[in-house]
Amino acid sequence: MILTNVTRIDADGRSSTGRHQAGSGTETVDGSGLLLLPGLIDLHAHLREPGFEESETIATGAHAALRGGFTTVCAMPNTQPAMDAPGLVAELTARARVARGARVLPVAAITRGRAGHELADLVELAAAGAVAFSDDGDPVDDARLFRSALEYARGAGRPVFEHSQDRVLSGRGVMHEGAVSADLGLAGLSPAAEETAIARDIAIARATGARLHLQHVSTAAGIDLVRSAKAAGASVTCEVTPHHLALLDEWVAGSRRFAWEPVRGASPPQAPRGVPYDSATKVNPPLRGEADVRALWAGLADGTVDAIATDHAPHASIRKDVEYAEAAFGISGIETALSVLLMAIDARMGELSVVVRALTSGPARVLGLALTDDAIVVDPLREWTVSVEALASRGKNTPLLGRRLRGRVVAAIVDGEVRYADPAWKGARRAEAVAR
Ligand SMILES: [Zn+2]
User: N or C: fewer beta carbons within 10 Å in the chain?
Assistant: First the structure.
């Protein structure tokens, strides 16, 4: 289609308003007030198939991704069986092709069965189509094994995506360790568990010269470690998640204040108050405090942070409708990510150009892949309410349920083809034109 008067932002964050082609076809659509962006790339999503289809499937996840504006998603290998064999990688790719949602790039396991004892055959997995290796959900505890994973991954020309966490230190923690965890009487996850692991991982990566990508960095000190590693020339990259850029540990106690909203008074009247111990707020790494949130935004602004990745972690209600300590970790976030980020930009937490880069050219660089000409059309002013029905994902586990958000993807184009279009979108535009 051809969009007129549309504001296009490219993968380098440059913007221009005018007439732009999006996908194939010559239909002309009024793009006034709309944004045309490159298709977003998510380095981190859990599609749950095979093994946990009650939480998500490749097809439901790939369609939820399009609604969130992500035309490419990297699927994490913590499935059952774990994605540790070339046949499983090929099967994932075949199913994704049939689903015709977002393109799905397989991330294969580092160790057999993700058990952390023995390396998977990384060279064969890369040949089968794995774009990266990760035991995400778990770190590789054994430093020697981690070193050889990095060496083989370098040989295979792929990055290692590491969930950096010292599990001895994090123990049985379920939320950020601080005043809120103390008030609630919940076991805390110490920020030091992330920081010491990041320091170890960077040191090992530097010794091997391999490409190390640190997943979901959530602490100010973690960002500082990446910043200095980059300054010293290490091939280290990192991602942050939308929930760590917007939500706070106080959400576990029932607050629903975004990090940029004032503490008292002025929060929007439609914002629901949450209840304490809502397991939808349970995520690993946990929601942190305001100083950490500010540090993540500063890391984005100065290029320390390469990508914003959703860590979309859908769960069937049975895994969340239990006591806080017992509930599964994870937030279903691929459909709310862009809205939350646009609202943060409105609140001057960061620049649109920086966020667009972190969702497009940044993740492409981490993967070492060229950008496609996939595109999305966004109505930045369209409001919507997050509800069970509004989410295409099988995972309804988000603390944003009931929340009114602003900014909505109205079309997603993959391989030149419109694979998602909001049914109301073009109809509404025509009605506006008639009314004028
Ligand atoms: Zn993880």
Answer: C
Which residues does residue 413 pair with via DSSP β-bridges, in sequence order? 375, 418
Interaxial angle between packed helices 58-67 and 86-99, expressed in degrees from 0 to 180 and rounded to the nearest 10: 50
CATH number of residue 374's parent domain: 3.20.20.140
Question: How far is Cα 274 from Cα 429, in angstroms, rounded to an integer?
Answer: 36
The residue among 152, 44, 56, 40 whose CA lies nearest residue 95 is 56
The total domain count for the chain is: 1
User: Which tokens in the block code for residue 101?
Assistant: 């949602």
What residue numbers bound the domain in which 380 lies?
Answer: 2-435
> For residues 195, 196, 201 and 203, what is the CA-based torsion angle, rounded to 10 degrees?
110
CA 398 to chain centre: 14
Taking only the tens place, the pLDDT of each residue in 353-375 is 999 999 999 999 999 999 999 99
Per residue in 24-82, pLDDT tens? 888 999 999 999 999 999 999 999 999 999 999 999 999 999 999 999 999 999 999 99
Assess contact for 342 and 406: CB atoms under 8 A: yes
| The two structure tokens encoding residue 70 | 């992500």
Kindly list the catalytic residues: 311
- C-alpha 227 to ligand 1 mean position (Å): 20
Residue 370, burial from CB neighbour count under 10 angstroms (0-12, 13-18, 19+): exposed
**Is residue 40 classed as helix, strand or coil in its secondary structure?**
strand
Q: How many CB atoms lie within 10 A of CB 345?
A: 19
pTM to 2 decimal places = 0.96
Residue 216 CA, ligand 1 centroid: distance in Å: 7
Phi first, then psi, for residue 6 (nearest 5°) are -95, 150
321 forms beta bridges with none
Distance 265 CA to ligand 1 centre (A): 35
List of residues 6+ apart from 423 with CB closer than 8 A: none
